[in-house]
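Quick bug: Lysosome-associated membrane glycoprotein 1 output formatted oddly.
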Amino acid sequence: MSQIGGVQSWCLGVTLQLVLAAVLHQGFATVAPPTTAQTTAAPHKEPGRPEKGIYHVTSSNGTTCLLASMGLQLNITFSSVSQNKTVQDVVNLQPNVTVSSGSCDSESASLRLTTDAEKTNLTFFFSLNTTSNKYHLSEVSLSALWPDMKEPFSARNRSLDYLRGTLGYSYMCREEQTLNVAQDLSINTFQVQVQPFGLTGDQFGAAEECQLDEDDMLIPIIVGAALAGLVLIVLLAYLIGRKRSHAGYQTI
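Here's what came back:
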């Protein structure tokens, strides 16, 4: 029976190692930045999870050429009138007061989101590589004039590489991401699904999920497989021990 106990202890140790490895893998996958663009955690001050909006861009012939569904949160650093110092504010984009517009052509597409109440204009630019049939978010610009701002805010970055997808497919990421645009601007995205090229009608194409979502699915698979293996090995050890016990009785 001591052998059975040893086998069970060994199995438990292996299982714990597998679970720990899975958790560490998830941790590294979440915080590790992509090779071409850095993703960091959102600031601590948050107004709550933003509402998800659905935004369309229509081509000259009246068909939808860009479709996006996402919740957006703006992190802006600016000079405050009331506090007389530089502050960081976090604001949710409200879909019910946001108007979408933009443009599409064979290799580029843009989505402009405008809110008149807060005088905010946020524009996403997507680029398509016609050789590889891959697209990505290549540029973001924001202009804003909020009541507490000493002067109008403006930020732009033309060398981004986020939301990468394949022509004819939509990019999807359920996990929260933070897109670093400039030193004084980052954007938190929630439950993103976007397709700037290759739309058929008003529906998204098949989704290509982001790495964060794939890692989230990997954890329960690893843990489940480890536990199943543990149960199987313990059962085999029990059956072997029981067989040996019977053999011992017969010898006596």
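Actually, after a second look the formatting is fine. The chain has two helices and 13 strands. Closing.
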